[in-house]
Amino acid sequence: MANIVIDNIKKSFGAFQALKGVSLTINDGEFVSLLGPSGCGKTTLLRIIAGLETSTSGDVRIGEKSVIGLLPKDRGLAMVFQNYAVFPHMTVYENVAFGLRMQKADDARVKKQVEKAAGLLHIEPYLDRYPNKLSGGQRQRVAVARALAVEPGVLLMDEPLSNLDALLRLEMRTELKTVLQEAGTTTIYVTHDQTEAMGLSDRIAVVHDGRIEQVGTPVEVYNNPATRFVGGFIGNPPMNFITMPVTGGQVTAGAQQFAVPAQGGDIVLGLRGETVERAPTGHGLDMHVRVAEPMGSHLLLTGSILGQPARVILPATETVKNGETVGLTLDPRRLTWLSPESGVSYPAAA
Ligand SMILES: Nc1ncnc2c1ncn2[C@@H]1O[C@H](COP(=O)(O)OP(=O)(O)OP(=O)(O)O)[C@@H](O)[C@H]1O
Where is the ABC transporter domain (predicted)? Predict the structure, then answer.
């Protein structure tokens, strides 16, 4: 097993800077997701760690040893990619055995490792089949089993579940988490799906425009986003951002007052939609509701607060009519305050 140190990695494609100095340490056995929108640089970073792409500058160390300059096969890692390339002309057994054969493992070791990996991924019944006789989900499991069969210290995965339908994704997500925890594999997982990252990760690195904007546990990045980008990217609905005037270090919302980390001017309130409580109008912030959607598990309200777009969530037992104005009280412990100029959040009050 191994830890991974990514040390100030920069990457340019011609004049375009895809990575602008990325540093991140992944602990031994940890599962870290690189989460960010399309084009932010996640795949490029993963490919640099894998050795499939060279960096312009910076270092990557796996288990204390710099791997810059080493071939992918000499880096002690395994990879699973989106298109889960399983070989169509090989049985599932030989697909899973592939990495071991490359390492010239003897037959006894191949058999032992294939059976172990197949057991973890529940593909023992298919070992004699060819991939074209498998479903997408089963093929995906073969690809993961092949990666795990070599007992890699490090596993790199790039959107490995994106070709699966929603239910299968959920199933595989749970399975992956269990399997990797059991194996103690250090994993870096690239995704643009925040639900996937929240569910799987020990920590999430939120990537934006070639930089890591925040690293933290799923709960930390959700509750205390470092920036407006992070708050807006994570959460469904995303965090609301409401600009409010500050007077003498205080913000007033109806009958509620909050001490804020600014003396005057404006401040941005970062408000998670499910942290409000319904109240008579004028008690906190009033919301003009354009559309109220009963979602089964909750009621989703879309409209505006102080003339600014907002989405909040109330319990499913509430009823609200389209066009109605509802009062909402805020929980002072659940608020984020951000600078309107920089979009950076102020540290959470102790
Ligand atoms: N070989 C290349 N030549 C030129 N530009 C590239 C090359 N590879 C990637 N880029 C650019 O670098 C940026 C980052 O690409 P990357 O594939 O890392 O993004 P990503 O975050 O993984 O996005 P996605 O989720 O869409 O794969 C993009 O703007 C992309 O167009």
Answer: 4-234
Q: Is 76 exposed, middle or buried (0-12, 13-18, 19+ CB in 10 A)?
A: middle
In terms of domains, do 127 and 88 share one? yes
Q: What is the best residue among 10, 22, 44 to mutate for testing ligand 1's pocket, by most ligand atoms within 8 Å of CB?
A: 44
Establish if 124 belongs to a structural domain: yes
Render pLDDT for 1-23 as a digit per residue (tens, 0 to 9). Answer: 589 999 999 999 999 999 999 99
Instruction: Indicate the DSSP class of residue 333.
Output: G
Look up the ipTM and state it. 0.94
Give the number of domains in the chain.
2
Q: Whole-angstrom Cα distance, residue 277 to residue 288? A: 15
Q: Is the domain of 159 the same as that of 247? A: no
Q: Looking at the structure, tell me whether residues 117 and 197 fall in a common domain.
A: yes
Is 37 touching ligand 1 by the criterion CB < 6 Å?
A: no
pTM, two decimals, is: 0.89
Closest to 211 in 3D by CA, of 194, 196, 230, 224: 230
Are residue 149 and residue 256 in the same domain, yes or no? no
- Residue partners of 61: CB distance under 8 A and separation at least 6: 4, 5, 7, 67
How far apart CA 282 and CA 152 sit, in angstroms, is 59
Tell me: do 264 and 331 sit in the same domain.
Answer: yes
- Å from CA of 169 to ligand 1 middle: 24
SS3 content of the chain, % helix, strand, coil (to 5): 30, 35, 35
The boundaries of the domain holding residue 296 are: 238-338
Domain match, 166 and 51 both: yes
- The pLDDT score that the predictor gives to residue 148 is 86
